Amino acid sequence: MRASRATPRTFELRQCVSWGMASVLVGLIGYPLIEARVGASQAAARLAKLEANPDRLTGDGEWMDSNLSLRVQRLGPLLASWETIGGCGAGGTGGSVGVKWIGHNTTGGLFHSQLMLDYLSFPNGYNVTALAQIDRDIDQKQKWNVGVVVPVLYKYYSNYLQIRPPVAISNSGLGDINAYLTRRLGPINATAITASIGFPTGTNNATYKFDPLSQDKQLGLGKFTGSLMIDHTLDESWGLIVLGALGAYRGGTNEFGSYRAPTGSLYAYAGYFLGPFVPSLGVTATGFTDKDQDRGIPQDLPLFIMAGNASIEWSTDWVAVLLGASFPFSTDLQLQPWIVALGVSVSPF
Amino acid sequence: MRPASLLRNAWRSARSRATAAALFTGAFVVGLAPPTDGDVWWHLAAGREILRTGSLLRVDPFSVSAGGRPWVDVHWLFQIAAYAVFWVGGVTALVLAKCLLVAAGALLLRKAVEREAGARAALWFATVFLAALFAARSLLLLRPVLVTLALLALFFVQLERFRREGRWSALLPLPLLQVAWANCQGLFALGPAFVGAYLLGSWAAARSDRRSPTASADRSPAQPPLGVHRHRGRALAVTLALCIVACCATPYGLRSAWLPLELFGRLLPGHGNVYAANVVENAPPLAHSMAAPVWHLKWFFAFLVVSFALAGRRVVLAHALLAAALVFLALLGNRNVLLLYWIATPIAVMNSWRGAQRLTALARRRRGARIVARWGPGAACAALLVLLFGTAWNEPALGRPAPFRAPTESARILRERPGTGTIFAADEYGGYLIWNLYPRYRPYMDTRLVLRTASEFAEYLDMADHPDRFDDFQRTHDFAYVILPVAYPDRYLGLIAHLYSSPRWKLVFTDGAETLFAKSDDTGLDGYDMGAPANTDRVLRALDRQFGDSARLRDAGRLGLATLDITLREFGEAERVLAPLASPEARALRARGRLAAGDLLGARGLGELALKEDQRDVRSLNLLALVSLRQGEPGSALTYLRRSLAADPFDVEAERILSSLEEHADAH
Fold first, then answer.
1. N or C of chain A: less Cβ packing under 10 Å?
2. CB pairs under 8 A between A and B
């Protein structure tokens, strides 16, 4: 984590791009190794089941002969064996409000992983958040799901002190890591309740020239947070409707006297199936119980926000990509910081 | 100028020329191989037909399943050019033209690297680029993708020139090149994508100009003046618009512009996509469970990782966008790995050169490191050249299709016979049959899958997987002949066995790699009795004549013939064919033949012998698992299977055995 006088912005952006590309490629290199390990453990589990009751395998074995190929050169198998995955449903992003994933997403693999890049724009800067989410179902009926969300933040402010010449600062690093547990209800798992806890892994004491940055420029509050979300998905032949609510305890007051108020949100989305694409529109209403404070000073932020959301998802059996945007307005119709998000989701193995 | 400077300049110039010559030679030699792919033949047939009729092909004239359907033949320009080259010098001329295109493209890319990173980086580029091409040489096919490679290089060089110098003139040729591209291959959409990447990069820089807090006085001399990016962005936007319009400048208009999207949809992995799941070049390269895993891709990714890490703030946004897009395409299907290597290699060298130089400077304090830094790239490049020449030397003759890949003899037999009709053949044989037999004979299927619906392709595959369904299909279509491969892929072995045992068909030719079946009432051709030693000897003599100078090819031919014998349950002949062979493959095939013949002890003996040499030989472990099951020892079978899956968790044969065991256990 650092807070420093920024060099011109494209260079920072370029560094992010370089390291982002390098990180993605490292993930791709590791993927086959993980796939092999997981494949081996799955095969071992299946064999163990058969070994538990070998009497059921008796017979002359002639029924097996067709399984032996006459291809003895080691060219390997012809076909790819990605698990067929599908079905509708809305994924979650650990209780965050912003661009919500609406569409087929991906399910059915050994685990589900999702990377969401959020770009939050405001007049004197922007925040980029990379949310890496990994989760998996822990039972065969997919009733229970556990996951973790690791956010990496990059915050940039072009004129931090509102002086001339302007001083630009940036602050980047790990945010608050969230772990969550989801319970799905109903015969087709249409309702999901997600409890999430946030760990204070993001630093809250970054300074610029020994002056602590304001709370909104920090990477975390330094306090545990928690949220409870309920989602209900209506599967229709033409698309899907997602209704839900989110209550979040955002950490309260920290040792610097900064305060983040609890929030409650209600949301509704409708997505339309258009081949591999799912365009969707939604609306989110968010209320805050009080004004946030920075070192004891109440911030000039609206207590109620309505956001219009739009996204389009493109998905195949194993990968889904989402491009979305959220435009929040306060009650006096002032546009609040808006978000553009790009997400990639895969369910490998 | 002082003599020392003159000498230094002369040395630099000589070094630069030597690097260019090495790169050109290496890139030329890497493509020296006979055609392995079935597509080139229908391209040639289309070129011939266009020139013969004097008009473009707008409906498919060649195949049964798509005959008369509208055909957006975006490759027509390539087809005419390819046929003209063939007319001049045959298949050899085509291969040489391919090598020239690849080598010319390599030189263009080198130019871009040299401009950005200097002459010394060019040697590093040549070494890495040749290594990447060598690793992916199986993808360097005689196809319109060659035009795409050359045009990608041209686009890259011109866009780099514009990025560095900002001259409009650099962009002027691009829309014209785009017109040619749109009439040669469906990948022409990459042209606008490349321009779009540079436009986005320029746009990001322009935004930075607007929002940057640093006044113009504070800007470093390396940064272009304020406002430049905006002007460049406009030029790129105009070029992009012109390139998009150029995409429609084909005889097929908007329909050809739509084609890349349609083809892209067929690349998307998933069981629901019959094209992606059954065409090996469309399979994702990182999937373990595919035919020929692209083992080198992870190393290339590692190289890219290092390059981006070294680039840090110096990375060019357009380069990052291009690399990301090409990585994405490569992950979708094997065939795109070549595109990734082609463009991402110069990008990676540009990315890493300065960082690598810094690291080298640090290491130069040690004498050994100094020597490696000075002579290492050159030595590696020379070693690669030796390897490339050695590989090319071992290739069969360039003037004929690669061995075992095309139904050369079946086509010759039918060409010499009178008559007309339709042929059921493996799709990869379709192009060669069209080239040789059109218009007298037309195959049911070929590799132009864009002409077939998914359900038609699935129905065709179903015939190979369920041979008994072929009889109904034959009643509908009344094929005169069936031509199927024994060698790769082995999907058709079941259908071969079915036809061989059918009273309605007779096998009239085989060389162990291809099989030609005619109707049993066809009196002009004698049937092969594969159980007769005389027939086996005849085929073996033909193999010796064909591959007399290559023991490797002769052995592969024998393996094919033995595979056919086992498929047709002529076990005695299979043993005879395999007798002179001592390779592990031959032993594995012999063991499988014995198992199929019911000689369990013989199969076990051979399997155990193979295991003594290689404890992790999956072939033998699978075989022994089946032998154990046949001998009523399920515990032992599971042990062998466990070892097999531990050695290769994605072995398809082991997976099939395991699934069958699970089904059997569930049923009992």
1. N
2. 262
